[in-house]
Predict the 3D structure of the following.
Amino acid sequence: MSNFKLEKLVRENILNLTPYSSARDEYSKGAGTFLDANENPFGTYNRYPDPYQTELKNKLAEIKQVDTSNLFIGNGSDELIDLLFRIFCKPGKDKILTFSPTYGMYSVSAEINDIEVISMPLNADLQIDMESIQSLIKNPTIKMIFICSPNNPTGNSINKVDIESILQDFNGIVVLDEAYIDFSSQESFKDKISYYPNLVIMQTLSKAWGLASLRIGLGISSIEIIKLLNKVKPPYNISQANQSEALAALEKVAEQKISVSTILMERAKMIREFNQMDLVTKVYPSDANFLLVEVKDADYLYEQLLNNNIIVRNRSSVMNSCLRISIGTPKENQLLIQTLKRQATLITEKV
Ligand SMILES: *Cc1c(COP(=O)(O)O)cnc(C)c1O
């Protein structure tokens, strides 16, 4: 770590901010007569939720093998992305660096916060072109670098040595989005947060835990950065219903393991199936729960699948003639294969 100083990176208004102090901040003994928050005394969901999601965080800390003080919970990763912008980037002045093609929310959130995005294309191996970013890493107006690994929509992991070298040399914040890490052959960077004070890892319960509708995004970082996130977040950002549901779901570790391993087996099967199809020209390697598939005419095929009520993601605007296809249940995958094979016959007959 060359010269990282957290206080210098944080926007002054955030450093000086007196955060909202919630009614419950001063009392943590559990049961009591609560006449402090203008709640309705009757009902089931009548109380404000725990602003720090203590129980849920303790459970997550156990599962992720990190300390509770290194954990932040956002209303989806999307909230976390926005909070990071508000903490570290001055609107109209600062910039971020991303590697395209990648997850769309980084640049949408940047635009909402009036932050310029410098987007460097990944190289032919879908890796970061380390040489071409050397001057950008030294540029002090670039406050954050977003690395998505495994990357969406390409599916591959970014080289570990390159991530480490950016963490070493960059004096801003490195946001490492590990939304798909549980499907990956690579290890998480979560055990490196004490080596790299500029590292913010994002994970989520939306993918491997199958809880997308509960909106639980995780930040794993230094205590200092977690404190800043807690300072800026809306006090009650995770509803009590969502905290309870997530906590209950996290007890079902065995089921979660089975679902992930089923998805991995199905992914292997789908790679084999796609590779046998004439209309598929390339299947990209995947460390995630989706496949990026290059086909002969992505726009046409996408429409045909839609006509059959099968919805995939047309990524031909960012990756030439590519569809991004999530791995579904064995039955759903079978249906997709059958539909594609029927489509292939139609195309052949048309010619
Ligand atoms: C799906 C996904 C997420 C998850 O976002 P949530 O808001 O937590 O549901 C984050 N990053 C990437 C790259 C994703 O593809």
In short: The longest helix spans residues 253-275.
